[in-house]
Structure formats: structure tokens, C-alpha cells
Write a structure and sequence with these properties.
This protein is an alpha/beta fold and 408 residues long. The protein contains 15 helices and seven strands. Helices cover 46% and strands 11% of the residues. The longest helix is centred in the N-terminal third of the chain and has 29 residues.
């Protein structure tokens, strides 16, 4: 009986997948292209620059990606990493902050963050909150063991990076709840601002922030807030009630303007607009081998045939529902600030209009050699490959070139 049910389920799944493929094919044939096939990636967008690169060789992708420890690293790798550390230190980089992306945090459904971070709960229900904080920490440890380095910065990755640089540069792993909607990102950003300011960065020093996936939206929102601190303090404090002290938060934003920040996104979809101060720099690393058509082939999406399939599917409208009614209301208000969050119509429109780039920053299209039916799940549809420890040196070489090549 169970085998019969299983076969029927497999049949229905196959039929649904076939129907989706036929629908995409029909839409592609029915809708005339708005422009000729793009041969030059530079034509794609209003970016400062775009370069096409290839990873040095195919990376071994076992079922579970193992960490690369500094002690076990080959001599050539160690020397190259030390060279990266020397280059970063010469540019004044004193701190590196690594941020994971959506659903890789300790509260991906954004349940505990909404409730237990309220002051009323923190003062009256401390004994109840404490076990849940331990539970979140235990979930984080379990998550690191299960998914490893697939779209995730593990503690060992951070330790290997700091040891490999062999420089006076501190590496920090920043954890945020990682819910897939505006409010979760803003809550994470508020804590990120506190972390940056707690580092006591000197005027001559720089801070390098690296964000995977939608962590890049935190950086984009930060760039907007730094340019209009009073405006955003009114929105977050008076309109949304997210700030306990709006005046103090405005002072923090104004303090950030005095810092030298370098921002790097790994696989971040272009959702929020960038408004970078002149003394900040920005670079984007994207896993793409070719330009996807206006109607991507479903099979190539599932096998990472184009590259980062999640990047193509994470456009405007791709947010998920917040679990609480109040949060959903606040997300609708934030739509007017950061763009549409949850909307099937906008999401479908973003998919069928083709690939897009960020409005600021240098873009690097990189072939990480992770395509194919036997490899795409191990790199999570081409989206989790960026944080592979074997790519640490390669990615940092690109970032040093993109962020500091033209700096004196």
C-alpha cells in the first residue's frame, strides 16, 4: 500500500514538474523578446564595472563540505593568504565581519526575535526567555554541523580566515535571525550597527563587511540610513516603533558616516537600492557562467546550469510571510521604503524580465564550476558555493582587487 502511494506521489510530482516546464516553454515561445540576445555582459546594467572570471579549477564537492584548517593548509596556500592579509592591513583594514544569509541564522522563522526582544518580555519574563536563548544557541550549533559551509560561515571558517591572514585583523561572525522579510533584516541591521560601533574603529582604520545572500540587503539598507539618518529614525522609531531611543539611534547612524566601510556581497540579489557614501566601497561576487534568458529553463535552474539559481529567484516579491500579524503590517509599511517584499505578481515579473544587477558597486561574474545534476544540491542550486572553504583564497583575491585596486 505504501509503495503504491509513493509511486502515485512520484507520478504527480513528475506531472507538476512537466506542466511547469511546458508552461515556461510556451511563455518563451509566445512572448517576443524585447531585445536581441546580449553578447556583452557590460550591456546588462547600470553598474560601475563588470568582469567575467573563472575559478581556477573544479572544486571537489563531497556530500558534506569539510572545513579547511590553517594548520592543514598547504604551504603555497598559507603564503598566498598571508599576502592577502598584508594587502588588507596595508589598506587599513582592522576588522572583518562575516554575515550569513536568509534562513541560516538561529531564528529563521522570526518567532523568538519578535517576542523575546521586546523590553516588556525582557524585564518580566527573564526566566522564560533564558531557556529559549539556549535553544537558539543549540539550534545554531546543530545548523553548523548539518549544513556545514554550504551558504554558511562556520566558526571554523572564521578561525581559519583569521589565522590564514596572519595580520592584525580581527574576524567576527555576526549572527542575525535571518527571516526572509523586511522587518527581520532591519532587526538584524540594528544589532549589526551596535557591533560595528562597539569595535571602536579609529579614523585611519577600515572595516570589511562580507554578506552572503540577503545579508547584502542589510548593507544596502545601511547605506540608505547613513545618508538620511533623521528620516529613517522617524520611520523606524515613530512610525514603526522599532527603536527604544530614536535620538540615540540617529547618533549611531551619524557616527557610522565617519567610519570607512568596505562592503562585499556574495550572491546577494538586487533588492534594496544602494546609496553609498563617497568613502565607502562595494563589490559583488556572483556565480554565473552565462546570461540567463528572459524565461529561464526550469531544468537549468534546478541544476544550476546558469549559475546561482537562487539569485534569479530572489527578486522583488520573493519574501515570505512573517508569522505575526503586527510584523506583516510593518512589512507592508516598509514596502514603501525598500520596495515590494511579498507579492507573487512582482516575483513572477522579476523572473520573466531576466537577470538584473545592483545600481552601485563592481560586479564579478564567476564560473565556480558547480553545474550538473550530481553537483547542484551540494552547492544548494549554485547559491551555497561562495562560502566553500576551498574558495576562501580565490574570493579574497577578487575582493582585494575589486575594493582596493584603485585606492592609493
Amino acid at each position: 500500500m505504501s509503495a503504491h502511494i509513493l509511486s502515485l506521489s512520484a507520478f504527480f510530482v513528475f506531472m507538476i514538474f512537466a506542466a511547469v516546464c511546458i508552461f515556461f516553454w510556451w511563455k518563451k515561445k509566445r512572448t517576443p523578446p524585447t531585445q536581441k540576445p546580449v553578447e556583452d555582459l557590460q550591456i546588462l546594467a547600470s553598474a560601475e564595472s563588470l568582469e567575467i572570471l573563472h575559478a581556477p579549477a573544479k572544486l571537489p564537492l563531497p556530500a558534506r563540505l569539510n572545513d579547511l584548517s590553517y594548520k592543514e593548509g598547504p604551504t603555497k596556500w598559507k603564503k598566498a593568504m598571508e599576502g592577502i592579509g598584508a594587502s588588507l592591513q596595508a589598506q587599513g583594514v582592522a576588522h572583518i565581519i562575516l554575515l550569513h544569509g536568509t534562513f541560516a541564522g538561529d531564528d529563521p522563522l522570526d518567532i523568538f526575535s519578535n517576542t523575546f526582544e521586546q523590553k516588556s518580555w525582557q524585564t518580566k519574563w527573564q526566566k522564560i526567555i533564558l531557556p529559549f536563548r539556549h535553544l537558539r544557541h543549540a539550534y545554531r550549533v546543530l545548523k553548523d554541523r548539518v549544513i556545514g559551509n554550504v551558504g554558511n560561515f562556520t566558526p571554523q571558517y572564521c578561525a581559519t580566515l583569521e589565522q590564514g591572514l596572519q595580520a592584525k585583523i580581527q574576524v567576527h561572525c555576526f549572527h542575525w535571525p535571518s527571516g526572509n522579510h523586511h522587518l527581520a533584516r532591519i532587526r538584524g541591521l540594528i544589532h549589526l550597527i551596535d557591533l560595528i560601533l562597539s569595535l571602536k574603529v579609529q579614523k585611519t582604520e577600515r572595516v570589511l563587511l562580507i554578506g552572503h545572500s540577503h545579508a547584502g540587503q542589510l548593507f544596502a539598507a545601511l547605506s540608505q540610513m547613513s545618508q538620511r539618518p533623521a528620516h529613517f529614525c522617524k520611520i523606524l522609531g515613530q512610525d514603526l516603533g522599532l527603536l527604544s531611543d530614536a535620538t540615540e539611534f540617529q547618533r549611531k547612524l551619524e557616527g557610522l558616516m565617519n567610519l570607512n566601510l568596505d562592503l562585499a556581497t556574495w550572491g546577494a540579489a538586487p533588492r534594496y537600492k544602494w546609496h553609498l557614501p563617497a568613502h565607502w566601497s562595494l563589490v559583488h561576487l556572483l556565480n554565473f557562467r552565462k546570461i540567463p534568458p528572459r524565461f529561464p529553463n526550469p531544468w537549468k535552474l534546478l541544476t544550476a546550469g546558469y549559475g546561482d539559481s537562487i539569485y534569479l529567484l530572489a527578486g522583488p516579491g520573493s519574501d515570505t510571510w512573517a508569522p505575526f500579524r503586527r510584523d506583516r503590517k510593518l512589512n507592508r509599511l516598509l514596502d514603501s521604503v525598500f520596495g515590494v517584499g511579498l507579492s507573487l505578481h512582482h516575483w513572477w515579473f522579476s523572473i520573466r524580465t531576466g537577470i538584473k544587477l545592483h545600481n552601485q558597486g563592481r560586479h564579478f561574474f564567476i564560473d565556480y564550476h558547480d553545474a550538473g545534476a550530481s553537483r547542484f544540491f551540494k552547492s544548494f542550486l549554485g547559491h551555497g558555493i561562495y562560502t566553500h572553504p576551498g574558495l576562501m583564497l580565490f574570493n579574497f583575491e577578487i575582493m582585494v582587487t575589486g575594493l582596493y585596486k584603485e585606492k592609493k
